[in-house]
Amino acid sequence: MSPDLQQVLEKKFAEKYGREPTVVAYAPGRIEVLGNHTDYNEGYVLSAAINHGTFFALAPRDGAEASLTAGDIMDEVRFPADAPARTEEHTWANYVLGSLAGVLARLPAGSARAFDAMFLGNIPLGSGLSSSAALEVSATLAFARFLGADIPPVEVAKIGQKAEHDFAGVKCGLLDQASSVFGRRDSLVMSDFRTLEFKPVAFSPDVCFLMCNTNAKHALVDGAYNERRECCEKAARFFAAALDHPVSALRDVSWNEWLEHRGEMDDLIARRAAHPVGEDARVLAGVEMLREGDVAGFGKLMFESHDSSRNYFENSCPELDTIVDAAQAIPGVYGARLSGGGFGGSAVVLVDRRAVETASTALRNAYKNRHGDWIDPRVITCSDGARVVRG
Ligand code: GLA
Description:
Layout: H1 3-17, E1 23-34, E2 44-60, E3 65-70, E4 75-80, H2 94-105, E5 115-121, H3 131-147, H4 153-168, H5 175-182, E6 187-192, E7 197-202, E8 207-217, H6 221-242, H7 255-261, H8 267-292, H9 295-313, H10 318-328, E9 333-339, E10 344-352, H11 356-371, E11 378-380, E12 387-390
Helix pairs in contact: 2-3, 2-4, 3-4, 3-5, 4-5, 6-8, 8-9, 10-11
The protein binds alpha-D-galactopyranose.
């Protein structure tokens, strides 16, 4: 969390609205470390909240109207405080409008109050580090405090997810919002997306993550995401009919069952299904390795995860592959993989703390040689989750 960023936001707020905010909430972005596209298949993920995030500030006002300003571009929208609806014009506002709708839905009718609000974050947009989840979660926490709603943490995450589904049109799982809510300093978060249990897993202080934002955004990202999700659901239906135990999601399918039945399935659906099925097994193995302090083994699982993205799920891209391929040959690097939805965004690299400088230089050079641009690898600190910081 950056106290400076909070100060900048509060100053901008006071300049625009002529008074101080009464409530300020903060929510971090996340890195996904292992377990790709498993969340909506009711599987497992290891992730972490990061030291970059979004502050959301608000103050009550008279009347029935709400004002919302994006603090970076100082663009403003106004809407009835009791009826937030999706907008085509200011699409950035949809994450906030959806969050407000979710908070109001958990309160008795007539609970809405007019407000002025502004937000500011430092997560690069489109970097695959969940800037939208950080906005949803910080807005939800601020609205809940402002309106006196007592919302359990997992419900905060679900409000953000529903905003994404209904207001932004992406059928995401719960990973991004849950990581933002349940993050823990110096730890990874082990999530079980069937039982909705979120547990911290201690992480060796000798290693850290480098986040490498490719700045690449390929294809119709949201369309491709929803399409992958549909393939997984088709695969789950196939296995529900083919196996003699209950299958309600790919979480219920083992790697051996996939191997045994892949030939009976449509080839594309089979390859898509291989990814979450393999990832679930890798997350469970990875948690054990972390407990035993086997960082090298854990890093190998990260490389395997990326191979599975590249070959089975086809949600990598040349820019991400360059980083992961280069990482394989850099001393002090244990593992690397894409992080998040894929098709661009960031790769996350697991590196010995003593090798951070040399690894960063090697990654930068490899990327420049292949794509002509510099990347700017940044050390990520595993951080605490979202909270109200004022009011
Ligand atoms: C995006 C989605 C998450 C998750 C990841 C892939 O970040 O928002 O719900 O599915 O992709 O693991």
